[in-house]
Amino acid sequence: MAGAAYRILAEQLATRGVDVAAVRAALNKQRIETPSWGYADSGTRFRVFRWPGAARTVREKLDDAAVVHRFTGITPSVAIHIPWDRPEDGDYAALRRYAKARGLTIGAVNPNVFQEEEYRLGSLGNPSRAVRAQALTHILACCDIMREVRSPALSLWFADGTNYAGQDDLRSRKRRMREGLQAVYCRLPAGSRMLVEYKFFEPSFYSTDIPDWGTAYALCLALGPRAHVLVDLGHHAPGTNIEQIVAFLLDEGRLGGFHLNNRKYADDDLMAGSVNPFELFLIYHELVAAGAAARHVAYMIDQSHNIEGKIAPMILSVLNCQEAYAKALLVPRRKLAAAQADGDVLRAHALLADAFRTDVRPLLAQVREEMGVPADPLDAYLRSGHEKRLAAERSRGRK
Amino acid sequence: MAGAAYRILAEQLATRGVDVAAVRAALNKQRIETPSWGYADSGTRFRVFRWPGAARTVREKLDDAAVVHRFTGITPSVAIHIPWDRPEDGDYAALRRYAKARGLTIGAVNPNVFQEEEYRLGSLGNPSRAVRAQALTHILACCDIMREVRSPALSLWFADGTNYAGQDDLRSRKRRMREGLQAVYCRLPAGSRMLVEYKFFEPSFYSTDIPDWGTAYALCLALGPRAHVLVDLGHHAPGTNIEQIVAFLLDEGRLGGFHLNNRKYADDDLMAGSVNPFELFLIYHELVAAGAAARHVAYMIDQSHNIEGKIAPMILSVLNCQEAYAKALLVPRRKLAAAQADGDVLRAHALLADAFRTDVRPLLAQVREEMGVPADPLDAYLRSGHEKRLAAERSRGRK
Amino acid sequence: MAGAAYRILAEQLATRGVDVAAVRAALNKQRIETPSWGYADSGTRFRVFRWPGAARTVREKLDDAAVVHRFTGITPSVAIHIPWDRPEDGDYAALRRYAKARGLTIGAVNPNVFQEEEYRLGSLGNPSRAVRAQALTHILACCDIMREVRSPALSLWFADGTNYAGQDDLRSRKRRMREGLQAVYCRLPAGSRMLVEYKFFEPSFYSTDIPDWGTAYALCLALGPRAHVLVDLGHHAPGTNIEQIVAFLLDEGRLGGFHLNNRKYADDDLMAGSVNPFELFLIYHELVAAGAAARHVAYMIDQSHNIEGKIAPMILSVLNCQEAYAKALLVPRRKLAAAQADGDVLRAHALLADAFRTDVRPLLAQVREEMGVPADPLDAYLRSGHEKRLAAERSRGRK
Amino acid sequence: MAGAAYRILAEQLATRGVDVAAVRAALNKQRIETPSWGYADSGTRFRVFRWPGAARTVREKLDDAAVVHRFTGITPSVAIHIPWDRPEDGDYAALRRYAKARGLTIGAVNPNVFQEEEYRLGSLGNPSRAVRAQALTHILACCDIMREVRSPALSLWFADGTNYAGQDDLRSRKRRMREGLQAVYCRLPAGSRMLVEYKFFEPSFYSTDIPDWGTAYALCLALGPRAHVLVDLGHHAPGTNIEQIVAFLLDEGRLGGFHLNNRKYADDDLMAGSVNPFELFLIYHELVAAGAAARHVAYMIDQSHNIEGKIAPMILSVLNCQEAYAKALLVPRRKLAAAQADGDVLRAHALLADAFRTDVRPLLAQVREEMGVPADPLDAYLRSGHEKRLAAERSRGRK
Questions:
Q1: The model's pTM
Q2: What domains are defined for chain D?
C-alpha cells in the first residue's frame, strides 16, 4: 500500500526531473544524534516536570536512545553531558561498550561548566583565576573522556556572561574566554573537532560572552582549523535569518554542526520543526546546496521535552528533520539557478516553495522499508506500548 | 553638606517653576511593596543560585523586608506567595502580628498554581475539570488567608498556556480561564481587589492564556469593578511601549499595579531601573500625569536576584523607583502641555528629557533626612556589615 | 490526470474520516478581496520600485483585479483607497458599474488620512482641532462614497502616533481618537461595518495611537456592535501568537477581518504565506474551528509587491490562502478534541501537523475545475503572456 | 552663574577622584560629523515630510552644518552622499573650498547604489554582471571624489539582499559582495579607510547581504587593514548588546566608526540618545575604556528628522552624544575594576550607574565657554530666530 503511494509520487518526481534513486540514497545516509539529556526530566525555572518513564541513569538514557534508533534507523549516536552522564563506576570504556551492545556510538561530549556554585560569575570568563582553572580542568578531563568513549567532537556551550552593565569588563571577559579555549584546543584528541556554540541570551541577561555566530566564528579563526561553529536553532534574536548564517559558515568551511530544536520566543527548546517547518526546510536547503562542503556537519537534537514525553517527541523531531531534508533534496536546483540568474523573483521563490509543498511521506515510507524500520515510526512507537511499560518500570524507583 | 547641595538644587528647581515643597510631600508619601520571594534563593532553569544570607523561612523574609524598610523608609508592606510562605504552624494571624512587630503589613497575596505536578497542562485553564477544581480551591483558600493577614489584594499570575500548536483548543482555554476567575471574583474579601497579571511567554512557549494587557483587561471587564490589570515590566514583547499601556489603563480606571523589575531580553527579572532608567522615568511620568486616577495603583517589586545578593539589590531597586518618581515630579507640566498643543515636537521632548537629566540625589537626601533614614541608603547598608552577619548566621544551618 | 491524483487523495482523506464533499463545498465558497493599491507601484522609504506593467489608474487596477479573479475564481471584490482611487470625474457610481462589468464588486473603502502635509502630527489624534476636523471630513466623505459604490465596510488604519517621548500626551491622543471614531461611527451607512486596524509601529516610532488588538478592541466596545477589529498579519511584535488573537476576537464576536500578507521582521508586506506557511494554516485552523462565528470575517490581501511583479504575486498570495484553508478543513476535529481532552500533547500536535503536511494541490485542482479556472492558476498566468503585454502597453505612457 | 554650578560639580567630582582637567581636555577634543542628508527633507515609505527650512542643495546643507558647528563647536566635518550631493557644476574641489570657507571639512563619502532602477535586485550582490559593474563604477568614482574633497573615509552601506526565500542563492550573493568590495578596496585613496556597514533588515525583507557585524567583520578581514566595521546604532535585532559589539571590534582593531541615532523598534533613525540615553552612555563607556584603541573611530550622526525640524534636532543629537561622553569620562575606572575583580556585582554596577546619574550640564557649560559657544546650544539656537528666517527664505522657492 505504501508502495502504491510511493510509485505515484516517484513518477511525479521523475517527471519534474528529480533523480529519485539519488534522493533515496541520500536519505539512507542521513544521521542525527540524540542527546542523553533529552531522555531525562527537564523543566523551566519555575519547576522541573516529572515524566513517569524518564531515564534516571546514563545507561537508561542509552537504552532510550537505542529505542529511538530502532524506530527511526537514523540515530545511531548519542551526545553525552559531563558530569551528568558520568557512570557510577567512572568507567567510560564500559559505557562505550554498553552503547555498542545496543547499536550505538557515543557522539559529542558536552562539558558542564555552569552548575557548580563556583560558576556564579562564569567559567572560562570568570574574573577569578581559580575558577577559570577549575573550569579548564573539567574541560580537559572531558578531552580524556572523549578518548575513552571515542567521541569525534567536544561540544562547548558556556553560560558565561553578565547580568548588569558594569558587572564585569567586556573586553577582559572576551580575552579570558579566548585564552581558555586556546588551552583546550591544544589538548583536543587527535582527529576530533571542537564545536563552539553561541547564544543570544540566557542565563545571562545583560551580556553573553559568546552571544552570536560572529563571536564564535572569530574565536574559531583564532583557534585553528579544527574549531567550528555550532548553530543551535534557538539561540538567535527574533527574526534572524538562520539559513543565511548556515550558508556563510558552510562557505567559509566553519560550520561544525547543529543543535536542532525549535522556538517561537527565546530558547524554547521545543521539538525540531514544530514551530516553523518551512524554516527547517530552508536550512536543509542550504545544506544540500552546499554539497560536499556540508559533509562534516554534525546534526544533533537538543531539546527540553517538558510536557510531551521523552522518546516519542524525540522520534517526532527526528522525523521532522528527515522530512525537511527529503523536501530539500527535491528542489530543482538547475531550474532554480536559472530563475535566479534571470532575476525572476516570483518563479525562483515558487520553485523552492513547491518542493516544500510536496508530501514526502510515501517516499520516506519507502526509504524506511529499505532500512527495516516502521513506515510510520511515531505511530508504531505510540502503538507499541513501550511508553507505558517504561513508565511502570521506572516509576517504581521514584517517590 | 547634603543640605548645601539640596539648597542649590531647590533654588534651581524653584527658578524653573517647580513647587519643591509639593515634590517633597509627594515623595514622602511614595510606597513600594517588596516581595517575600525576593529574599530567598532564586535561579534560572539551569540552576538555583545559593546566596549565603538568603532567607530560608517566611519569618526571615519578613525580617529582611524590615531591614529594607529601615534603610529606605518607603517599603512598609510585603507581598507573600502561597504555599511558599505558609507558616509552619499555619497561623496566618500570627504571621501578620510578626510582621506588625517589625513595622510591616502584609500586602498582596499570590497564590501559586504552577508548581504541583497536576499543573503540567495548566491550572484554571487545564483541560481536566479535576485539576481546575484543585486550582480553584487553592485560590479560594488564599482569599481566606487574605482575611487573616488583612491583605488588600489578590495577585494572580498564571503559568497556563500550551507549548505546541494543537495541544489544546485556544477558545476553550480562554473560556475556562474566565469561568475560573469569575468563581474567584465572587469570593474576594470585602474591600479587596483582584489583580490580573499577563505575560508574553514563559513557561509556556506556544500560547499563554493571558498573554497581553488586552486579554487581562477584557477579563477584568467581564469580572467587575474590583478586577484590575497588573503590569509586570518584564512581561512584554521587545519594543512594547509600556508607558502607553499604563496611560491607557489609568484612563480606563483599570490599572491595578506593577511588578517592578527590568529586562533587556525576556522576563529577565533584573533590578528595576538597571537596564533602561529612562523607561522607568517615562512610566512614572504617566502616573504623575494621571493625578488622582493613579491613587490606587500598587507598586510591587518582583525580581530574581540570582547573583547580586538579596537585600542590597532590593534597596537599589527601591531607590531607582524613588529616583524615577522624583524626576517625574519635576516635569514642567504646563510648559509641556503648551509645547504639545503647539505641535513643537522638539521642545516638548526636550522639556521631558531635561527633567530626567536632573540629578535628584540631593533632593532625595533631604527627603530621607526628614524620614529619618540614611541619605544614601545603599551605601549605608553596604557599610553596615549586615550582609556579612546574615551570611554567617544563615549559612550555619545549610549544607 | 489531475483527476487521478485527486481520486487517490480523496480516498486517503475519506479513510481518515474527512468529508471530502463538504471540504470542496467550503472551498467553493471561499472569497478573498484584493486591494487596488496592490496593482500599482510601491516601494520602501529608500525608493519606489517601478514595475513596467503596474496599473496607473483606478480603472487599470480594476482591470488587473479582474484578471486575478479570472485565474483564481475566488477574488470577486476589490478594496479601494481614497483619494488614491478617486475617479477623474469623481463619479463613483460609474466606477462601481465599471467594476461590475468586469465581474467585480467594490469591497472595503479605505480613507487615507496620512499623506497630506497637515497630518504631520496625526489625523484624528492630532493636537490641532482643525486638522482633526479635516480628517473627520475626509472619512465622512468616504462614508458617502461607500453608499455610491455599495461597499460593505469602512476600513480604518491610522498612521497616528508620536516619534518622541513627551511629543504629545498619550491620554489626550487616546481620547481624541475615540472621539473622532465615535463621530464616524454615527455616520456609517446602514448595513455596513467599521473595521478598526491596529499596528505595532511605523510610521510612528515612539508610540502608535492604536498599537495593538487590545486598544482596537476597547475602541470597538466603546463604539458599538458594528465596529470590529481588523487584523493585519504584519502588525505585531515579533513572536506574537496571532492565531490566539484571532481565536479571542472570534469568541467575542469582534473579529472584523484580515489584511493578509507575511513578514519576517516588521511590516514587510510580503506575499501571504511566503515566510511562514504554517502560521497561515494555524490562523485558518482557528477560523474553521470557530464555525459560524467566523462567517462575517472579511479576507483582504494587503501587500507591497516591490520587486516580484503585481498580478502574479497577487495570484500566488490568493493560492497560498486557499491552500491554508484547504489544509485547515482537513484537520480531524473530533480526534483532535479527544486528544486535547486526554491531555495527550504529542498526539494532539501531531494530528494538527499532519493536516498541514498533506499536499492539497490535487484537491484544489479539482475544485478549480469545478469553478472553471485553471488547475494551476499561477502557472497558467505566467504562461499566458499577459504580464508582457501589460508591460508593453503601460510602459508606453511612462517616462 | 554657570561658573558657580560648575565649581560645585568640579569639587564633588574631584572628591570622587575625577581628574576634572583631563575630562575637560577630552571633551575639548571630541568631534562628531553631521550628515548632509540630515538637513534635507526625509520621510517614511508612506510619505516624505516637508520642512519649511530644509536644505535644497548641497551648499545649503553645508550652510546648515556650519550653523550646527557654530552653536556646538564640535561638528567641523560633514558626510556627503553621492549622487545626492553632486554639485551642479560637478566641481568637487570648489565644494571643498565652499565648506572650508565655512569652517568645515568634508568627511565620509557615501556612495548611493540603491536608488537607480537597475538596483532592484541589488548592487554589488546583483545576479546581473552588468549591474554589478555599474555599481562598482559608481563606487570607484566616489573614490575619485574622495581625493578631490580630501575625504578620510569611504562609507559603504548596501541595500542588497532578497525579499523571498529562493529568490537568489545566498552563497553566490556573499561571494559577489566580497569580490566587489575587493575591487573597491584596491582603489581606496592613500591614507583613507573603508567603512563597511551592516544592517539587520530593510529594505530587504528576507535576507540582507551584510546583515550583522560578524559578516562585516569577516569581509574586513578578507579585505585588509584599512577596512573597518561601521556600527549604525539602529541596525540590530531587538535586544542586541551593542556596547559588547563595540568592545569586541575595538579589541580587534576593527571598529571604524558609528552612525549615531536611536530607535525603539527597527531602524527608526531618531535623534541620538532620545530613546535610551543609558545605552548611549554604555557605548561611550566602552570607547573611553578602550583608550588609544578608539582613537581612529569616526563619530557620524545619521538620522531622519521627519517631524522635528532639521538643525535643532541635529544640535540636540550632538549634545546628547557630548553628554554621554562626559558621563563616561566620570566613571571611576580603578574602583570599577576593583569591584569587578572582587566579583562584587552590585557595587560594580552601582559605580557605573552613578556616573550616568550625574548631571553634567554645568561641566559642559564650562567646556563650551572655553570653546566660545553658547552654554546651552539648543536653547540658544531656538531663541536665535534662525529656524524661522530659514523657513521664510527657503519656502519661497518651493511649490
A1: 0.98
A2: 30-330 (3.20.20.150)
